[in-house]
């Protein structure tokens, strides 16, 4: 067994969150640059150029890409040969607190959905944990903005709705969201499981590398079809119209009950902020 020092966890979470808020992923930046070349709308092209400029300023000056520095979502993959010297969740949240203090990042978390008193340190994070084999801890973080998250949803379809029902749900969701989630988007889709599982695997989908493809053949084909059809909706960059409404579509699936077809759509903005590290 390997004992993991929780101070290392706190520091890693802190560093990942500062990095995620300031440094756009190279793969995402390249997608934006490619979209500038292919975007057919002049105003859409201008918006994409401004997004690129904004992202480069953020990198150069070590300032956030967006004023909404998000609620923190974290996936922990915990090796089954690890033991901790304390509370792993306290260590993670301490990393959140330090990142948002040291980086002068906006604190966006309130203590209760109705009372709405700001916690003043952006904690607590939303933490999902998996036990895996080995003696390593993988930490994946995403500062998830409110604008894109507000346009996300879970819908319990029925099996008869099938592929066409899934596509209609996704396309209707993106079209009616317009510019609110700050397109061009990364669209995470979770199909199957149950109510909460669909939502979790849709969230996991937006953590995937922007250039990868689903392993399952149906999921892979659906990704390609939806990306094409989303970009034909005409929503365009920041909702001003154009041919670049999404940069990528990611579909994750899971076995489900014979009577159910749960579908979750988790929308991510053009910043697509997420980073990961393994201890």
Strand elements, count: 10
- Which sequence of strands runs across the widest sheet? 4-2-5-10
Low-confidence stretches: none
Question: Could you say which structural class the secondary elements and strand pairing correspond to?
Answer: alpha/beta
The largest sheet, given as strand count, sense and whether it forms a barrel, is:
4 strands, mixed
Shape: globular
Mean pLDDT over the full residue set = 98
Q: First CA to last CA: what distance?
A: 14 Å
- Total domain modules: 2
Number of helices: 8
Question: Could you give the topology of this structure?
Answer:
Elements: E1 2-4, H1 6-22, H2 26-38, H3 42-61, E2 71-79, E3 82-84, H4 88-102, E4 126-132, E5 137-144, H5 146-149, E6 153-157, H6 162-177, E7 185-193, H7 195-205, H8 217-230, E8 246-256, E9 261-268, E10 275-278
Helix pairs in contact: 1-4, 2-3, 6-8
Q: Brief description of this entry?
A:
This protein is of the alpha/beta class and 279 residues long.
């Amino acid at each position: 067994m390997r004992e993991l020092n929780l101070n290392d966890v706190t520091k890693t979470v802190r560093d990942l969150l500062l990095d995620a808020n300031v440094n756009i992923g190279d793969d995402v930046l390249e997608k934006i640059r490619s979209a500038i070349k292919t975007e057919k709308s002049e105003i859409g092209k201008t918006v994409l150029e401004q997004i690129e400029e904004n992202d480069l300023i953020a990198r150069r000056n070590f300032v956030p890409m967006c004023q909404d520095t998000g609620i923190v979502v974290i996936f922990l993959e915990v090796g089954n040969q690890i033991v901790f010297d304390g509370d792993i969740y306290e260590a993670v949240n301490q990393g959140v607190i330090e990142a948002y203090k040291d980086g002068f990042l906006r604190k966006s978390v309130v203590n209760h959905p109705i009372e709405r008193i700001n916690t003043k340190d952006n904690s607590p994070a939303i933490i999902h944990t998996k036990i895996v084999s080995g003696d390593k801890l993988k930490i994946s973080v995403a500062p998830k903005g409110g604008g894109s998250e507000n346009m996300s949803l879970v819908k319990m379809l029925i099996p008869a709705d099938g592929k066409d029902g899934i596509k209609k749900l996704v396309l209707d969701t993106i079209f009616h969201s317009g510019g609110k989630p700050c397109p061009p988007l990364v669209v995470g889709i979770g199909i199957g499981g149950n109510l909460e599982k669909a939502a979790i695997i849709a969230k996991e989908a937006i953590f995937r590398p922007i250039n990868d493809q689903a392993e399952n053949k149906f999921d892979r084909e659906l990704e390609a079809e939806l990306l094409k059809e989303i970009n034909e909706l005409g929503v365009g960059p920041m909702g001003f119209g154009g041919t670049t409404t999404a940069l990528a579509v990611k579909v994750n699936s899971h076995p489900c009950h014979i009577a159910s077809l749960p579908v979750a759509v988790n929308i991510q903005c053009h910043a697509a902020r997420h980073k990961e590290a393994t201890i």
